[in-house]
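Bumping with the actual sequence this time:
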Amino acid sequence: MAIGRTDSMQELITILESLFDETIIGSDVNIVKHLFYYLKADNREFEFIYEEDNLVAAVEEIEAHSVTLMIPDLVEKGSRRARVRFEVMNINYQFEVVILDIQKEQIVIKTPTELQSYQLRTNKRIPVDDLFMNFIILFRSLSGGSREVGKNLYAESRFPHLMKEVRKDRPDSKLINIMLTEAIERISKDYEIHFFKEDEKLNEFDDFIKKTILQTSKTIYISDCNRITSYINEPNDEVLFNYFSEHKEMAKELGDEFALEFFESMRKHESRNFYVSYIITPIRLYEDVVGYIKVFSTAMERFTISQNQAVYIFELAEIISYVFTKIAIQYGSYETMQSTTKVVDISLDGLLFEIYDKRLFQYLKRHNIIKMFIPLSKERTMILRGEIIRFLDKGDHYHLGVNYFSSAPDDMLFLESYLFEKSMKILSE
């Protein structure tokens, strides 16, 4: 059922009519279309819920009866219905939409014909210009975002002591390093933890591996260094890969004979170093590959790294990448607090904060559960946990909207008092 126009809705309509040529003639479809125009004009990113995936979308094009959205991580699953959710003028909107077409990262939806669901904020956001915060990211899953039930629980159970340290507000990097090496040595005593340097001198094959990992960020697993098929046959695994794609690309560019000869030379080179099997998995800081963990077995040890053991190393590297980034965010936030984590506005429900680091902005889209430390006064630091639900690219800086889901005892009472004074004793609309 369509809904009537509130004062906030009428204010929005007035603004939109001043911005765009089309005018609203009273029907819901035009109001909805103008909401999408507003999202496009403000370059606003919003939620797109497709089956169980919570994705980030942006308006690409608006036609008479359809809207084209850009969704980078979209994977078609056969369903032709989805939900979109966004906030405009302090009102939260949600629509169920029909999908007309899916083409790679673009999806075309039918423009909704009526306002299906909306909710006016209970608590008004109060703008502030003298409030700053520290924050850390909280672990939700290996891949970030929503938990993959079973898979991530199993991964966490494999590293109980490591995960206990990772979940701390201030993980001990020295202790993390000890736990990392102990975990690797359960698989093999032959390993290398390598961080890339710009001017490092590498042989032909190590340089190729470095470029492959930097470009693809994939985990390379060679189960048998005595067989060329282990290097170039198509892999059948979700997280473990070989050089199949690189061989295919090289064959296309330089010919089948050259490509086969290159990987056969690589295989012989590694066999001369007595490799039997190995896994190379990237270490990332934010989403940037900065190095790798390489674990291998040799002819002297007389064992082969199994697929399950390779997955174990992959999961270990994912946790290490997460905790390295957590520590980097922690120190970056604490040391440059006033330039990176300014609070823009705040209410009893959530807040909007500002950052300047694009890498951090992109990373928080997946790892969006955070713990915030907000000094309301010299005597009181408020501790809140929340979920980032809005991501706004402002060009030279970024705004992120957080909804709280837990707080320290009595903190909300102190926040209420703070907002009461800031808002001239007006807390709700």
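The tokens above came from a reply further down the thread. DSSP finds 13 helices and 19 strands in the chain.
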